[in-house]
Specification:
One of its GO terms (molecular function) is acetolactate decarboxylase activity. It catalyses: (2S)-2-acetolactate + H(+) = (R)-acetoin + CO2. It is a single chain. This protein has six helices and 15 strands. The protein has one domain: Hypothetical protein, similar to alpha- acetolactate decarboxylase, domain 2 (60s Ribosomal Protein L30, Chain: A, 2-Layer Sandwich), CATH 3.30.1330. It is globular and about 50 Å long. The chain has a seven-stranded mixed beta sheet. Strands 9, 10, 11, 12, 13 and 14 form a six-stranded antiparallel beta sheet that branches. 40% of the residues are buried.
Length: 236
């Protein structure tokens, strides 16, 4: 029986900051820990969103691809979906949506949100794959493509991490999006309004998996890096 109370995370956002962008887990391995999730490919190769066990990659050219088992990732979240209905929303901005959700749950544990409905002025991004020697997260993220849809139906898949875990993940919400037509999506930069149903799944356990077989990660000194500042610059 699938464990629906555990959020599995491979890698940390902190390791992306200095450019430790090697793919250190395969999609096949990641899917053993969940049928729902988000992530990015080796070299920040696009933005991933996993729904119903299918891993979609929004590439920098805007195309949505289903990736193969041997696709590798430096960072990803996954879990086995068992969402419950939370509420419905009508034309809420990202800030309004997040405020409403937090008023109905606790900010001291991890949870995932799925919002399905219609979104106005949805703005997403996907980064172009880079190759060794990798640049920093901030520099690599500059080579990104921005996509905008005035009105689009789809799924907003989000993970919330408590502030005390900032660095391992993004403290707060981390949103990815995929259209119902599977022709638009990516890391969410913003939207005008969300109208639809909101579902939530709360976790009581974070399973943090680190790339201990990657020498670059194991030998790196993070002490001279302003990790949190760089994460929030790149993710905003």
């Amino acid at each position: 029986m699938a464990n629906t109370k555990t959020l599995y995370q491979h890698g940390t956002l902190a390791l992306l900051v200095p450019g430790l962008l090697d793919g250190t887990i395969t999609m096949k391995e990641l899917l053993e820990h969940g049928d729902t999730g988000i992530g990015t490919g080796e070299g920040l190769d696009g933005e991933l969103i996993i729904l119903d066990g299918v891993p979609y990659q929004v590439a920098s050219d805007g195309k949505v691809n289903v990736v193969k088992d041997d696709f590798t990732l430096p960072f990803a979240n996954s879990h086995f979906g068992e969402y419950r209905n939370l509420t419905t929303v009508d034309a809420l901005s990202p800030k309004e949506l997040e405020t409403k959700i937090l008023a109905m749950t606790s900010s001291n544990t991890f949870f995932s949100i799925k919002v399905h409905g219609t979104f106005t002025n949805m703005k997403t991004r996907a980064v172009k794959k880079s190759h060794k020697p990798y640049a920093t997260l901030g520099k690599t993220a500059e080579d990104q493509s921005i996509f905008v849809q005035e009105s689009v139906e789809g799924t907003l898949l989000s993970y919330y991490s408590p502030t005390i875990f900032d660095g391992a993940a993004v403290g707060g919400f981390h949103h990815h999006f995929l259209s119902d037509a599977h022709d638009f999506g990516g890391h969410v930069l913003g939207f005008g309004g969300a109208t639809g149903s909101v579902m939530i799944q709360q976790f009581d356990t974070l399973e943090q998996h680190l790339p201990v077989n990657n020498p670059d990660y194991m030998n790196f000194d993070f002490s001279d890096w302003d990790i949190l500042s760089d994460i929030h610059k790149a993710e905003s």
